[in-house]
Design a protein that fits this description.
By secondary structure, the protein is mainly α. Helix content is 73%, strand content 0%. It starts with 8 loop residues before the first helix and ends with a helix.
Length: 408
């Protein structure tokens, strides 16, 4: 059974922003500033450039292949089944780690000490339930969460920049070329939300026109927000931002606006929930597409007849995310997520590069820059995250090889 086309431009932009706003603003500054130091804005610019190249590749591919699955489906069509599998598997494992990171971020801001883990688990379960009752409900909830998040971030920027003259920021660590690149790799985690739009190609109205526009609008909005927040954090906290799990709440405290801390915590928790909701939606759709091709267990390919959503895939993803929340920490989840997502976009750029002139919307140079950028950044990520990511990707390859042999 096909998925229903119900999402319009505003819905798609909201889902894309919901995936990005919260993913970086509230969780990535500590590890990124810790490695990039005074070069954090350069790292942000590099991450944004690579994200833009990847976004244009995704938009070009989505216009030619308006189906669920994102680069998994695109790479299968343009390069071959194995490339599609590696892309889809990398996306699933990377974004499952992102879901865990968002649940942990929500709990860090919303839960008292000692209650973070159970609150994070409860958030995953609740939002998975929302997804199981229809994509239009997902879009409505995401719109509400995005608006609340943006209002909270506007408050942070206004108070932070307004009171920065009285702040005493700690010096930023010295920058190195390797540190800046590693920071860009970690910050890329924050920009990857536009992929959620492409993975929902089977549910978007007029996808060949809507998806490219939605990707451009969502990414452009996220770049503006991240830049403003980064400048605010640097001016108010400086190097101290590398050691806190709640940097935006600390901005208010450092500028004498302690009374706003609860409001900022609510905004942070809201943004994290928006990102988690949109991420769960995208992973469910990619899992559905992979199960249809038997690259994941066929049982996940069923679409619920009443609500027209891949309910079994949604539930399976939620259970895995809960498991990660129970055993991992935030920094590891971000590094592992960046590894999977950068591999995913490396293949997306290769697939877009292979498209025919009739399907081309952007110069091939952008796909070359995007692919090289992904290769460079993935090789600068923390060693442990890269090693674990490599092992998990290889396990997926072995699973597909065994599955193909059994089917024959």
């Amino acid at each position: 059974m096909p998925l229903a086309r119900r999402l319009r431009l505003g819905d798609a932009v909201a889902i894309g922003l919901g995936s990005m706003i919260g993913a970086g603003v509230f969780s990535v500054w500590a590890p990124a500033i810790g490695v990039a130091g005074s070069g954090i804005l350069i790292a942000l610019a590099i991450a944004a450039l690579v994200a833009y190249c990847n976004a244009t590749a995704s938009a070009q591919l989505a216009a030619a292949h308006p189906v669920a699955g994102g680069t998994y489906a695109y790479a299968r069509a343009e390069i071959g089944p194995w490339w599609g599998f590696v892309a889809g598997w990398s996306f699933v494992i990377g974004k499952i780690a992102s879901c865990a990171a968002m649940a942990m971020t929500f709990a860090a801001y919303a839960a008292p000490e000692g209650w973070q883990v159970p609150v994070a688990v409860a958030a995953v379960v609740a939002l998975a339930a929302v997804n199981c009752f229809g994509v239009t409900r997902t879009a409505v909830v995401t719109r509400i969460l995005v608006v609340a998040s943006l209002l909270g971030l506007a408050l942070v920027v206004a108070t932070g920049l307004g009171g920065s003259a009285s702040a005493s920021p700690a010096p930023l660590p010295d920058a190195s070329a390797y540190g800046v690149l590693q920071g860009a790799g970690l910050l890329f985690f924050a920009f990857a939300g536009y992929a959620r739009i492409a993975t929902m190609g089977e549910e978007v109205v007029d996808p060949s026109r809507t998806i490219p526009r939605a990707i451009a609008l969502a990414l452009g909005g996220a770049v503006v927000v991240y830049t403003l927040v980064a400048i605010t954090v640097i001016l108010v906290l400086g190097g101290d931002a590398a050691t806190t799990t709640t940097p935006l709440a600390d901005v208010a405290a450092a500028t004498g606006w302690q009374a706003l801390t609860p409001i900022i915590r609510i905004a942070a928790a809201t943004a994290s929930l928006g990102a988690l909701l949109a991420l769960l939606t995208g992973i469910g759709r990619t899992s559905l597409a992979m199960a249809r091709e038997q690259d994941l267990p066929r049982v996940l390919a069923k679409v619920d007849e009443r609500w027209q959503v891949p309910r079994r895939a949604e539930i399976a993803v939620a259970l895995i995310v809960v498991g990660i929340v129970l055993v991992a920490d935030l920094r590891d989840a971000i590094g592992f997520s960046s590894f999977g997502v950068l591999l995913y976009y490396l293949i997306a750029n290769a697939a877009a590069f292979r498209q025919s002139p009739a399907a081309r919307r952007y110069p091939r140079a952008l796909q070359v820059i995007g692919a090289l950028g992904c290769l460079l950044l993935v090789n600068t990520l923390p060693v442990v995250a890269s090693a674990i990511g490599t092992v998990v990707v290889l396990l997926g390859v072995l699973y597909r090889m065994a599955s193909l042999r059994l089917s024959r």
